[in-house]
Structures are given as structure tokens and as C-alpha cells.
Design a protein that fits this description.
Blueprint (H helix, E strand, L loop, with lengths): L3 H7 L29 H16 L8 H5 L1
Protein name: Glycine/D-amino acid oxidases (Deaminating)
Length: 69
């Protein structure tokens, strides 16, 4: 989730420096997933489990090939 005020400051000179890539500032320790669409009801529990594992620095509860799909 972007930090709106920091983004305005970071991108203020974007018109003059069009060739420089700038990363969007974010809030530390804020995790979210969004835009799950019509399948969100089915995929949200698994996404929540993966997100919780990442937040607590635990192993992700599935193998890499399944996660890559």
C-alpha cells in the first residue's frame, strides 16, 4: 500500500527526470492482498495462509511449483 504523501514528494520531479525509475514509497510492516475478483471467495483463505506465513517468517504452506501457478 503506497504512502501517498511520500509518493507525492518522490514523484515531484518526475517530469524533469523521465528516464529515472523511482520506487514507490510504502509503509513498513503493512501487508495486504486485493483484487481477488470473482474467485476471491475460494482463493482468499489460501492467500491469507500464505500471507500469514510470510508475515511471521514461517515456511509457506505449499511447494514452489504450486505457488508459481
Amino acid at each position: 500500500m503506497p504512502d501517498y504523501d511520500a509518493t507525492l514528494v518522490e514523484y515531484a520531479s518526475l517530469a524533469e527526470k523521465k528516464d529515472e525509475a523511482v520506487s514507490a514509497p510504502v509503509y513498513d510492516d503493512l501487508f495486504m492482498f486485493a483484487a481477488l475478483g470473482s474467485r476471491g471467495l475460494c482463493s482468499a483463505p489460501l492467500c491469507a495462509e500464505i500471507l500469514a506465513a510470510q508475515m511471521s517468517e514461517e515456511p509457506i504452506p505449499m511447494d514452489a511449483s504450486t505457488l508459481a501457478r
